[in-house]
Amino acid sequence: MDQDSYFLPIEGMFCLYKRLIQLETSDKDILIDFAHYLLLYGPDWEEEAKQIITHVKDGDVDKASKKAMEINYFKYDKK
C-alpha cells in the first residue's frame, strides 16, 4: 500500500487523539504522543504541548487530560 494513503488531515488527527484521550483518560503514552504530535506542527500549540508533557511528568494525568481536551484546532479562526 502506498504511504500517501496513510495521511490524515491535522484536524482529523486532533479528533482522533481527543477521542482516544476521552476513552483512555489515564493513558500517559497517548497524552505524550498527542503532545509530540502538536510539536510537529510548529509553534501554534507549543505552549499547550509543553503543559501536557509537564503535567504527565509531574504525575498529574488528570490535568494533562484536561489540558489536551481544551486544545482548539481552530484557535486562530476569527469567525
How is this structure best described in words?
62% of the residues lie in helices and 0% in strands. With 79 residues, it is an all-alpha fold. The protein has one domain. Helix 2 packs antiparallel against helix 3 (46-57). The N and C termini lie far apart (39 Å). The mean pLDDT is 88.
Give the helix level as a range of percent: 55-70%
Query: In angstroms, what is the radius of gyration?
Result: 13 Å
What fraction of residues sit in β-strands? under 5%
Shape: globular
Distance between the termini: 39 Å
Query: pLDDT average, as an integer?
Result: 88
- Encode the helix/strand succession as letters: HHHH
Main sheet attributes: strand count, strand direction, barrel closure: none
Features:
single chain, 79 residues, mainly alpha
Secondary-structure topology with pairs:
Elements: H1 10-23, H2 28-40, H3 46-57, H4 61-70
Describe, in short, the structure shown:
This protein is mainly alpha-helical and 79 residues long. 62% of the residues lie in helices and 0% in strands. The chain has one domain.
